[in-house]
Amino acid sequence: MLRFATFRVVSRGRHGIRSFPGLKPLAGSAVQECLFGNQDLSVSARNVSFAAGRTTSVAIQDMDSPPKVKLLIGGEFVDSQAKEWVDVVNPANQDVVSKLPLTTREEFEAAVRAAKQAYPKWRDTPVTTRQRIMFKFQELIRRDMDKLALNVTTEQGKTLTDARGDVFRGLEVVEHACNMSTLQMGEFMENVASGIDTYSIRQPLGACAGICPFNFPAMIPLWMFPIGVTCGNTFILKPSEKDPGAAMLLAELAVEAGLPPGVLNIVHGSHDVVNYICDDPTIKAISFVGSDVAGMHIYSRAAGKGKRVQCNMGAKNHAVIMSDADPDATMNAIIGAAFGAAGQRCMAISTVVFVGDSRPWEEGLKERAKKLKVNAGIEPEADLGPVISKQAKARICSLVQSGKDNGARIVLDGRNVQVDAYKEGNFIGPTILADVTPEMECYKQEIFGPVLLCMQAGSLEEAINLVNANRYGNGTAIFTRSGIAARTFQHEIDVGLVGINVPIPVPLPFFSFTGWRGSFAGDTNFYGKAGVQFYTQTKTITSQWKGAAGQGVAMSMPTSQKL
Predict the structure, then answer these.
(1) What pLDDT, in 10s, does the model give residues 323-377?
(2) Distance of alpha carbon 317 from alpha carbon 495, whole angstroms
């Protein structure tokens, strides 16, 4: 029910979503018919409740057909001439949100040309100017936080609260890029030899590219292009074909912030466009987040052509629970880390290893998980929304069944959860499997859904060995009151991101996201100092300025020794 008259309406605009302040809804019906300018708009007000005195955003859709997602090439949002299009679908109700083009080869090459042409001038733009654009960019993201979050929820499915977190964690990387004048500093040493100085500088690479996953449609693009362009590179971004809207909104904000034409370009598509990115000689570096199969394909194909590559891939993140861990704090942490975002996080805790018997913990985890509300992310009471697609739901359910068939015990089964108002949604409720062993397919595969596996170990050493034997090395955590156990764990564990009584140890951007082993392939990691290193190359200069004539021809190897 609409409780006040003036609110902010979000309309499908030139590339996806645009807002119109001050539009007044008609009272009384579930679907409000409005007129703005010369365009008829249909506003869905079902189950939407607004707080009095606040400006709120709701999604509206053109009445004739879903809007077509545009490309960004050379500073212009343009219509694609693609012959093939795919539907962007709301996973809560299967509504088609928009139509996404599979970018043609010619359109891709135009984006690359735009990036190449923009590079020389952008490279020579003072770092302080580039920083100021990032300062403005972060201001605009804050202004449109709710609009971005609503788009994330609509296309990806996560709750609005979680979607705001998605945007905010990306915003923090933009804030970090505002410090590029310090991050990109080189080094200087005077008198490395008599009258000779040596110094190093960090210079950009050229045109770079980013290939994004579906699970963080705002955060991951913001991991990539803000650092890349503030270092002086130009950029070609490929959002996920499942939820491109947030990236398009961010691109419009970047243009509004003052990013020059061609510095950021956006193309869409799937396998063919990924291969174009890997093969194009103009593109010097590629950032990727996504599945193992795609990541290893990109890494091998692009690295084989001499490109710099960073690939964040799959994960199987374990939490080791010591017998002395605080029960309430630990179980609350595990529930949030396992089932938040319907388990579709690369840092989700998908496996718990209990040092000792798991049964005393199982009932507490089950009772907490049963209280979680499964619903469309737009609904205010939702704790977890749908998974991204019907295919993803089928795969998750299949892995749960395979675990059961191979001897795992189902503590809580959420596969048949029903959400009455969204019967077509891709919903899976929290699911807990116990007595899981390393040979089971549900353990070997990244499930990427709201499923928690419970395992047991006889000692901390055995738990560490179990975690280290897994092929992934993204994140892990230990819950304990023992400093000795925590210190042993952090030293011995073969995983790149470690939490001590912290379930999801994703670092803030002044550190780097340091996945290891099967979870990462490439040169250096995302954001932080490593991110700046990835998007720059070091040039070292040795200089000598003499006021008098030299000492003649020297044929021996130069040394610092003064003869």
Answers:
(1) 999 999 999 999 999 999 999 999 999 999 999 888 889 999 999 999 999 999 9
(2) 9
CA–CA dist 209, 109 (Å, integer) = 13
d(CA 201, CA 182): 12
* Active-site residue flag, 178: no
What mean pLDDT is predicted for residues 245-264? 97
CA–CA dist 528, 183 (Å, integer):
9
pLDDT digits (tens, 9 = 90+) for 196-205: 999 999 999 9
Per-state percent for the chain, helix, strand, coil, to nearest 5: 35, 25, 40
Tell me whether residue 70 is exposed, middle or buried, using C-beta atoms within 10 angstroms of its C-beta: 0 to 12, 13 to 18, 19 or more: buried
Distance CA 37, CA 40 (A): 8
Q: Which two tokens stand for residue 81?
A: 């001439």
Phi, psi of 121 (to 5 degrees): -70, -40
Half-sphere exposure (CA, 13 Å, Cβ side) for 266?
A: 30
C-alpha dihedral sign at 133, 135, 138, 139: negative
Tell me the whole-structure pTM to 2 decimals.
Answer: 0.86
* 178, 208, 212, 346: the active-site residue: 346
Q: Running DSSP on this structure, what letter comes out for residue 507?
A: P
pLDDT tens readout for residues 473-506: 889 999 999 999 999 999 999 999 999 999 998 8
- Rounded distance between C-alpha atoms, residue 66 and residue 87, angstroms: 9
Neighbours of 17 (CB within 10 A): 26
User: What pLDDT score does 327 carry?
Assistant: 94
Per DSSP, 92 falls in state T
